[in-house]
Write a structure and sequence with these properties.
138 residues; mainly alpha; two-stranded antiparallel ribbon
Length: 138
């Protein structure tokens, strides 16, 4: 018999495993935080990430995580998080397009070599389907 319990990653308490992978207290707290953010965004859809952080009283790093996870719709154009390389604001992914270009220039991908097709000794398989029905003739 295995116990279906784990430690909550946010607060460390033991909880019964569930879909959200956190205890009920942290889950309720997360829900209320997202609700506060959505209420503010409903009233002020052009809010920046910093304005939302101050208005909803949420840590900016937590907002960055929400944006990365897709908790907020892309209809809010000013919700951004920093690029992992240059810290420029981006809306999706991990790095901005200029850093992506820099990485592609610095580390070019070698052309993929296509394996030569085997010409001798190739086999073809023929499959026959047998059914349980017999042909009935009248």
């Amino acid at each position: 018999m295995t116990l279906m319990v784990d430690y909550c990653p946010r607060c460390g308490t033991v909880y019964q495993k569930n879909f959200r992978k956190m205890c009920n207290g942290c889950s309720n707290e997360l829900d209320s935080t997202i609700k506060r953010c959505m209420d503010h965004l409903w009233r002020y859809p052009n809010s920046t990430t910093e304005e939302l952080s101050q208005a909803a009283d949420v840590e900016i790093t937590e907002l960055y995580q929400f944006i990365k996870e897709g908790k907020f719709s892309f209809t809010y154009p000013k919700l951004t998080f920093p690029c992992e390389c240059c810290r420029q604001p981006i809306r999706q992914g991990r790095i901005c397009s200029s850093c992506t270009g820099s990485f592609k220039e610095a580390f070019p991908v070698p052309a993929a070599t296509v394996p030569a097709a085997r010409t001798s000794g190739t086999r073809t398989s023929h499959k026959t389907l047998f059914t349980s029905r017999g042909s009935s003739r009248r």
